[in-house]
Amino acid sequence: TYANFDDIPDSGLINDGKSISLWFNPQSAISNGILIGATTTDSNIYITNSTTISMEERDASNDTTVSWTVPTIAINKWYHLVIVFNDGTYTLYLNGALISTQSEAAFDGIIIDRIGGSSYGGDVHFDGIIDEISYWTKELTLADVQQKSHDYYLLNLSIYHLYEDCYFSNS
Is 2 left (phi over 0), alpha (psi -120 to 50) or beta? Predict the structure, then answer.
């Protein structure tokens, strides 16, 4: 199952000068588990496998994927994920550490309105817990990410959702 996340301005578009942050805890082996996705387009941020996190945008004119190699993601462990969007570059942080910055000029951004899955192109869901999704109207810095990884702060925070005991499953 998945939950709606329709509070993001501009029809859910996350692009240049913005950031998204969330906590996740996988409950089973990971295979294309969508953390956040969309209803009407194939825009997703997902865990491809235990060492890859990807972001994709697919529509009639564009099929673009940006992927990051990450340290092995274990089952039943919490992770803090941040992606920063900056003019064709996309920086991924995991647990307060910079993983890498990828460039992809063809990537326009992603449209997000689902948590834990996507209904576009079939039902693919994340089997685990997702919490504290934050949408930022600024590019978070390493210092911002490290602060967020350790405690809460509300500098330029546009939307904050706290999901208590919200469990997503692909069964």
Answer: beta
